[in-house]
């Protein structure tokens, strides 16, 4: 009798153990992506920038580069960025912008749960849709291959790319991502354009510029709506954020700041036409305040003030004018 009870108890215990083990089996996890993470190469510093004399510096060729992405994803995501647009220009202080390179990039599929985040980030900047874009996009292989061909110097030296310091991590990561997926290897030298401007300033003035001066020059909105600056799609849709425009405005900034200092005559390749025809010195403008009052102002035009081709601007005090007009209309109504 006791032996039979023991067998019954042991059988119940074994069945309970099987049920418990079945409940503890984890859900199947999707296999991780086999694509290896891009190797982020160390970024060079400004010590690599040097010239024997002013003539070598003026004739030196620089490549200004920018890559736009659908936002920035969290660190735990394999895809930190989804590149969607690339722009690059070939520039020298002597000749200005000599050629430009631009592609819309076929983006990868956003990680699960981040599609809205990616599209919302794009809508706040470049406004390129993730899907349903009517213009052709290029795959990673085409973009990298044509970029290497575009930036290959005649003497066989490695091209030097420049971008804004805040964008270096994103651009370097995107280049590494595209290279790791396509297998196209190239040794990129990605410098900060702030270092280049500092070197140009130091070479002529024997001192470093202030950070306020440096970022005021780079952050100017003077060329946001200049013709032949943005790509055709961004210009037709009146969108400021454009990878190609970002690159061209770096060249405009250097041309405006250093062309006269190094004795280089400005041309349409250095600045947009409405700027290259102007005197680059300090302009005196008559500002109309309304009610017959005027005031002289010197310096660059503030953002949002419409200027004539050579910097002269007229700002009207519209609030004062409306007040005077309403008072005049009121007096006429009483007289009638």
TrEMBL record:
GO terms for molecular function: sequence-specific DNA binding. Residues 77-275 form the Maelstrom domain. GO terms for cellular component: nucleus; P granule. The keyword Kinase does not apply. One of its GO terms (biological process) is negative regulation of DNA-templated transcription. Its main location: cytoplasm. Residues 1-21 are annotated as: Disordered. InterPro entries: Maelstrom, Protein_maelstrom. It is found in: Cytoplasm; Nucleus. Keywords: Cytoplasm, Differentiation, DNA-binding, Nucleus, RNA-mediated gene silencing. Belongs to the maelstrom family. This is Protein maelstrom homolog isoform X2. The gene is MAEL.
